[in-house]
Amino acid sequence: MADIDPKSSGGVNRSEGVSWVELMDKDSRPVPDFLRTESYTYRGSAPLAATRYTSEEFAKLERERMWPYVWQFAAREEDLPEPGDYIVYENAGRSYIVSRQDDGSVKIVHNVCLHRGRKLRDVDGTADQFVCPFHGFAWNKDGSFANMPCKWDFGHLNEEKLGLPEAEVGRWGGYIFLREEKGGPSLEEYLAPLPEHFKRWKHEECFTALWVAKEVPANWKIVMEAFMEAWHTIVTHPQLLPFTGDCIGAYWTWGDNINVNNTPFGVMSPHVNPEGKTQQWIVDEFVKYNGRSADNYDGESAADPFNIKVPEGMTAREALGATMRKAYSEQAKQDLDYATDAELLDGLVYNVFPHFAPWGGFMPNIVYRWKPGATPDSCIMEVRVLVRVAKGDPMPRGAQMRMLGKDEPWTACKEIGVLGDVFEQDMDNLPFVQDGLHCSKTGEVNLGDYQEIRIRQFHQTMDKYISGELGGWKK
Ligand code: FES
Ligand SMILES: [Fe+2]
Fold first, then answer.
1. Domain 20-56+194-467 grouped into CATH 1.25.40
2. For the CA of 121, the nearest ligand
């Protein structure tokens, strides 16, 4: 990659305070190597063009040169547990039906009638056949053609060739992916090294307990990028500073597709004046404002994570870790004694190119997905919360998505707890970022070399698709 600019932070987090790796060394349990091994690559410091976020021409390049060639997170297994269950997944100008087959496999076909183009399905459901509501052309759930009324009028169509076009299917960790155009890296190659890391956290043993979405008046990349760095906490989410290492987290990338921001919780931000602040104060603030607790979603954890007293000589992090370890072991009905404080407390926020972000760790895990809207100025942001299925319990059907109305704030979804307030603080910026980029005199966006390296990697990967170095539009 690029030579390191001597003025750059050069891949080193130079903020004051304890570093992420030092925290890993102090964890009360041995930390897996991948949580303490730096993976930073300097990728240059050039500004980005604002038009990447604002122009229809750029959105068209994304639609034509990127989306058809990437693995997209389309569904979770528990969204369609039984044969015949299907969901409609729509993104970037395409509509798909993701459906469960009798043998447990998954087929993904384009959701457009090959007669005169009606969408075959507009909501999720269960069916063995997709019968078009217009004139009744019908397809089996595997996409093969089944039937049509007035056959005599379609002698010119070859029924053998009238199957619905299929997308490639990939499955990992309870997630179902699709790739519109066949060919390119396997899902395993594409996701590496993420599945190695998630072996500890087993998202295939979790289910969607909550799923909420909202249209946001900003480009999908603007919204996504607001969740790819934690250092805006200092101004946007000041209530989190007492227990958030906002600027001491790790920002690592691997290859083209995978990156992470590990942000520690249970440790005071270097931006807080430590005078007179105790470890108990950190815990008390954490309990007030951290939104990620098993109690929010299952209502039956035996331990009460909200009544934590820090014993003499213990850090807030250790005390929180111990409480969470007990609470989650009980909730999951399994021994999580080996779980590190980091895996029980921290924001281990992975992104998979281009639009999927699963949090690692043992906690109820947040999963984000962003999708472009009808214009470059809007998008859909979806938030799922995955909860571990207790050992021995059956996998429940996943929660259905709740789409918030235009005037409904995230806080209207009560189950999301104080996260709703945090998202609302983010939403207070995003439409104004979009507006600002339209108004920009310089037409440029500048990125931090370290804390915004994930955003840099994302744009460089996107450029590889647009140039044809990755994907297949040139072929
Ligand atoms: S458009 Fe589907 S059957 Fe006519
Ligand atoms: Fe934020």
1. no
2. 1
Q: Which CATH class is domain 70-179?
A: mainly beta
Per-residue burial over 446-474, b if 16 or more Cβ lie within 10 Å, else e, is ebebbbbbbbbbbbebbebbbeeebbebe
Atom of ligand 1 nearest to the CA of 137: 3
Give yes or no for residue 139 CB within 6 A of ligand 1. no
Among protein residues, the one whose CA lies closest to atom 1 of ligand 1: 116
Give, in degrees to the nearest 5, the angle at Cα 356 between 350 and 360: 30
State if pTM tops 0.85. Answer: yes
pLDDT digits (tens, 9 = 90+) for 128-179: 999 999 999 999 999 999 999 999 999 999 999 999 999 999 999 999 999 9
What tens digit of pLDDT does each residue of 363-387 get? Answer: 889 999 999 999 999 999 999 999 9
Atom 4 (ligand 1) nearest CA: 135
Q: What is the pLDDT of residues 48-65, one digit of tens each?
A: 999 999 999 999 999 999
Gap from CA of 128 to ligand 2 centroid (Å): 43
